[in-house]
Backbone:
């Protein structure tokens, strides 16, 4: 028992010493990894003495030109080197004759990386549009187009503004559907009450709203008579093209 | 799992599509808004002699009627310049709009001796537009009636139904003697006694055309039913049976009168022809049955019976069949009155030693208390169903009050001395 314990202790001690010696014999050659960060609270400024990066003024000193890249191995897609706090930890041999060629190569590399990044972003947008299926930009439920808000939305907005001033009803769930016709000059030439719950007070409120809104309408686009079905309710006005 | 998901998709997708209603644009809008009406004091026409008190009275009448209607908030406005008169002058709406008014009533009057000419116009201030206009020709005493009549027009414009403002209320008053039948405008003005017999007169009820009145009178000792026209003083006995001849009620077509007779012992519901002939018994019960009232279509009669021990309101067919109990709450329910639309019945319930006005749907649902102050009884609907008149004792003599059908706006309208009770509202 005592002999076995001594032998085991000796073997373990020998292995430990061997490992210790091996580490000194072959030191690690791995370079320390660079650490990048961006301080989102205190955004980096070009010149700390100039205050906020958005600050402009006569007293602000001109920011110094950005320093040259420290290392040719820095990743192009990483944030600006101004935010880099760790160094490569490895000194590079400076060759003044090859500085110009090196800078040119770096510029080319950065330009190439930037164009690749833009292309990837565009490709992502194309895929997104394909998935949405509408082929239109903007919010999924939006009624506008790339050309801007349509005339229907404009009329609906005018009616809504006027309806705010006239709304009055005496039944529980008043509802009126009106077919509006607007001529090429922007005048309401006809209004047909298609449906009503019979609340005359509410009908009057709708009629007054149409009259009020009809005062200031701009002509429909393309000089065509506009017609649309508008549903008036106390909580909302909804529209559906006939 | 796939099958389950497919089912979910099949169920949810069509529903979502329906709810979304592609193409609709939902916009949030505010809720109900109380419109403001300005009743401008009318202008004297063509520089005629101004009667500022008459002009002010017309504006006051319009403001009172429209405020009571509950459709607008009305204020009397001092007159603004009206160069050229209503006909040729242009109204500057800017000051009214700036003051927050949505509607404006402008008027112009001329008084020549006893002749009165009034023109009223209703404007939509927001749209600078005239909505309606009326000209009235009459005597000076018609001044309030003209203003009431124009308020009927305003309500017609705003709600699609004419107002009741030119109607009258008959009631029992102790101001002119014992208990006389009197009549007044709906707002309590122009009160006049109809009977002058110095006896006890009860339960007035207008004929459907508003030209005749029936009532019970003790003037010959027995409570008999009489009829008289508003245009003369002749009181025609309609029912003079031994015992009670009380609580008469005209049928909607004016051909019959339902009443309570006790000629066979206890009080039962009968109908008689408009001339008092052809009495027909509708109820057969050892209990007391009184206060019959017709539904607006004449197909049913509501009445009070204590056949279950305490007075309750029952409904039966107009021929006396199919009797059913209407009120199930309260121990003492009386004075039923059917609304002009036929959907509700107002009545009085005794609770805590005082009566209060209730309203209940014709099917017995929706029993709702309308009054809480004093002791209120004998409800009577206005011809358009917008108001209920009732008699109430609130710390003084009993008076006639008017409220909206939802119980709001309770306002005393009778102005004379003594007690004013048992109102009956005329047709327009």
Residues:
């Amino acid at each position: 028992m005592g002999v076995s314990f001594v032998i085991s202790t000796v073997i373990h001690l020998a292995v430990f010493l061997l490992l210790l010696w091996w580490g000194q014999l072959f030191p690690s050659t791995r370079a320390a990894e660079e650490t990048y960060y961006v301080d989102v609270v205190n955004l980096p400024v070009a010149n700390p003495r100039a205050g906020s990066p958005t600050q402009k003024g006569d007293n602000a000193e001109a920011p110094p030109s950005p320093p040259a890249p420290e290392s040719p191995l820095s990743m192009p897609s990483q944030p600006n080197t101004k935010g880099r706090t760790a160094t490569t930890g490895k000194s590079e041999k400076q060759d003044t004759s090859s500085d110009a060629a090196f800078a040119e190569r770096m510029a080319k590399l950065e330009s190439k990386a930037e164009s690749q990044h833009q292309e990837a972003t565009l490709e992502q947008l194309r895929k997104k549009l394909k998935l949405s299926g509408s082929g239109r930009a903007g919010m999924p439920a939006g009624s506008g187009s790339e050309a801007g808000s349509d005339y229907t939305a404009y009329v609906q907005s005018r009616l809504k503004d006027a309806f705010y001033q006239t709304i009055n009803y005496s039944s529980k769930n008043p509802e009126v559907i009106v077919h509006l016709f607007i001529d090429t000059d922007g005048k309401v030439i006809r209004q047909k009450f298609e449906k009503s719950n019979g609340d005359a007070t509410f009908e009057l409120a709708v009629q007054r709203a149409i009259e009020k809104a009809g005062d200031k309408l701009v002509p429909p686009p393309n000089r065509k008579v506009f017609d649309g079905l508008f549903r008036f309710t106390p909580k909302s006005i909804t529209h559906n093209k006939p | 799992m796939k099958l389950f998901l497919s089912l979910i998709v099949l169920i949810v997708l069509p529903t979502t599509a329906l709810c979304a209603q592609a193409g609709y644009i939902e916009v949030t809008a505010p809720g109900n808004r109380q419109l403001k009406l300005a009743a401008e004091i009318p202008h004297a026409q063509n520089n005629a002699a101004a009667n500022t008190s008459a002009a002010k009275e017309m504006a006051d009448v319009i403001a009172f009627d429209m405020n009571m209607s509950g459709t607008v908030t009305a204020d009397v406005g001092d007159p603004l310049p009206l160069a050229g008169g209503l006909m040729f002058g242009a109204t500057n709406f800017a000051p009214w709009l700036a003051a927050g008014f949505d509607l404006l009533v402008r008027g112009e009057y001329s008084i020549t001796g006893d002749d009165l000419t009034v023109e009223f116009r209703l404007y939509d201030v927001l749209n600078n537009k005239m909505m309606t206009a009326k000209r009235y020709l009459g005597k000076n005493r018609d001044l309030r009636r003209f203003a009431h009549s124009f308020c009927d027009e305003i309500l017609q414009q705003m709600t699609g139904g004419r107002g009741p403002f030119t109607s009258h209320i008959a009631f029992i008053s102790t101001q002119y003697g014992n208990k006389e039948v009197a009549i007044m405008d709906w707002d309590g003005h122009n009160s006049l006694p109809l009977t002058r017999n110095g006896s006890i007169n009860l339960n007035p009820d207008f004929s459907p055309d508003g030209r005749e009145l029936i009532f019970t009178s003790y003037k010959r000792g027995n409570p008999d039913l009489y009829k008289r026209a508003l245009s003369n003083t002749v009181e025609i006995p309609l029912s003079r049976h031994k015992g009670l001849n009380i609580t008469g009620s005209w049928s909607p077509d004016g051909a019959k009168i339902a009443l309570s007779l006790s000629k066979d012992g206890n009080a039962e519901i009968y109908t008689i022809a408009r001339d008092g002939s052809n009495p027909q018994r509708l109820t057969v019960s050892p209990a007391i049955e009184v206060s019959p009232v017709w539904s607006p279509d004449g197909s049913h009669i509501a009445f009070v019976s204590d056949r279950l021990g305490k007075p309750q309101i029952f409904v039966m067919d107009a021929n006396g069949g199919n009797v059913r109990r209407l009120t199930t709450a309260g121990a003492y329910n009386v004075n039923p009155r059917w609304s002009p639309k036929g959907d509700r019945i107002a009545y009085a319930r005794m609770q805590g030693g005082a009566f209060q006005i209730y309203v209940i749907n014709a099917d017995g649902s929706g029993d709702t208390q309308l009054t809480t102050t004093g002791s209120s009884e004998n409800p009577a609907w206005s011809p358009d169903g917008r108001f209920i008149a009732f008699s109430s004792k609130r710390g003084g003599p009993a008076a006639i009050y008017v409220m909206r059908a939802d119980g709001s706006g309770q306002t005393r309208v009778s102005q004379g001395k003594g007690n004013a009770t048992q109102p009956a509202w005329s047709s327009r």
